[in-house]
Amino acid sequence: MSYDPVSKWEEFIRSRYWDDLLKLAESYPSTRSLIVDFADLDRYDTEFADDLLENPDVMLDAAHTALQEIVLPVDVDLSGAHVRIVNLPQHLKTRDLRSDHIGKLIAIEGQVRTATEVRPKIVRAAYECQRCGHVFYVDQSGTKFIEPYECPNEACDRRGPFRLLPKRSQFVDAQKVRVQESPEDLRGGEQPQTLDVELGDDLVGRIFPGDRVIINGILRSYQRTTQSGKSTYFDLFLDGISIEMMEQEFEEIEISPEDEKRILELSRDPNIYEKIVRSIAPSIYGYEDVKEALALQLVSGFSKRLPDGARIRGDIHILLVGDPGVAKSQLLRYMAKLSPRGIYTSGKSSTSAGLTATAIKDELGDGRWTIEAGALVLADKGIAAVDEMDKMSPDDRSALHEAMEQQTISVAKAGVMATLKSRCALLAAANPKMGRFDRYEPIAPQINLTPALMSRFDLIFVLTDEPNVERDSHIATHILKSNYAGELTSNKHNSSINEEEIENATEVIKPEIEPELLRKYVAYARKNVFPMLTRVAMERFKEYYINLRSQGQDGNKPVPVTARQLEALIRLGEASARLRLSNWITEEDVDRVIKIVESCLKKVGVD
Ligand code: ADP
Ligand code: MG
């Protein structure tokens, strides 16, 4: 190094961060961090900035010393303060970490999956020698506790016994979190990889399972142990330096000016609804009404804060119940892939956290409680596609009410308490209790879900599998064609098949709007369009709702009609207007919504 890092830091802070330092000095010790933007360092001195990335331990130590040495106009000792670097130039994915990265300052992007409770961690252990009474300190920097070997008092020099003095030792708050790759970064079917992160002091308690974050830190490794002793393999963890929150749900989708032009053009197409419906799961035949509802779910309504602080969700929850083999799972998988932040999971979920969240004691916490996020938390601001929901655990069953309506999940177990966010739209599928629907009995009792839970869905579709020669023949043609369409297009030189036949076969499964553009369209709508009710639309919804209520009074309706349904109508209306990027919910939207709601009610109802 061609310079003294401590004076370099002093110079840098004096010239670029003086005001921030003064602010820190004033509020210290209740705030303890000087946040430094890496870009400022880079502009100040590129070599200095590069050295920080390459040798973060040395450089951050120097920064810490500089903080203490700078002469301040106020008399405070900043020895407990930290320099926290944010905005690193490059973000890595867990799967790209290599041994070269060990010891370097890196940024990891992902989603918090689990977080332990906050507990003190010893950083400087005070010992008393029981032979001579000498008191000395052992610094604890690693993950393993270091005990003294012999008394440092030369006159004594004996090997103990020593007594730990907790009151004279130094502790910091510590927390471990496990970060996993975000669903949108995974290509079809890949399992997300995780990285453990250690956080200390004022970084603890700030992030929760489900949060999307960038964590900057120093990558470290530790040796694994197996039953037969130490292993030659090492594991990685990140020693956290700073945290940045990623709040914008659609920032990961870039919309160029050309994209915007195409989006606006599409929105003016009079057949936009048909086009979008034909772009949803084109390999599945029929179900136009379901697909229209799924299109509405993609854009959803928007959440609102009422003047009294209450919140109304904007996400649309949809339930598909039906006989086996009617393409429920297929639809769910398609939507999870299409949605910008979609997750596909099963009610019988493989993870211990299930659909909602759980508190467990596991190896991550070393005996501490750990909160783990389930699918609805991980799908925050996206779509959670939950297959076989009727088979979920009893814990999930009870937590789901809150998760769907308030869109939060409260965990309270053995002193750990947390409220996680689950602002996602739920797309669920369930099979009938007895395997197949009995067509001559009412539908609702044949589903293993309570009325309270069912009433939280905005739309419930019943898909029965009744033989119908005409429809069956269409489905058969459709499946047969789409099965070989991929083959045909990739194998065009096969001369025995002519172009026309290829056209014929591929047209059925080609989405009208390609998924990439549709995703951008949805992101654009959700970001920019917040439709309001026109007076006519308001009157129409009111009239329809009152009508529903009076019909619902006959007492044997499986799903009671409550004010929830009115909220559902509004949400669906908003989504309908959003789909054509309109700022007003008009009669056209009301008609569409009523048509969809009616098609659901007819089947769920007793008739
Ligand atoms: P479920 O989850 O309802 O039991 P699946 O999604 O597993 O059913 O569907 C079974 C198979 O039948 C899938 O391969 C699906 O593509 C096919 N299938 C069922 N209905 C249709 C349809 N309407 N159009 C195209 N394929 C269908
Ligand atoms: Mg299925």
From TrEMBL:
GO terms for cellular component: MCM complex. Keywords: ATP-binding, DNA replication, DNA-binding, Helicase, Hydrolase, Nucleotide-binding. Residues 272-479 form the MCM C-terminal AAA(+) ATPase domain. One of its GO terms (molecular function) is single-stranded DNA binding. GO terms for biological process: DNA replication. Signal peptide: none annotated. Its EC number is 3.6.4.12. InterPro entries: AAA+_ATPase (IPR003593), MCM (IPR031327), MCM_dom (IPR001208), MCM_lid (IPR041562), MCM_N (IPR027925), MCM_OB (IPR033762), NA-bd_OB-fold (IPR012340), P-loop_NTPase (IPR027417). Belongs to the MCM family. PANTHER family: DNA REPLICATION LICENSING FACTOR MCM FAMILY MEMBER, DNA REPLICATION LICENSING FACTOR MCM4. This is DNA helicase.
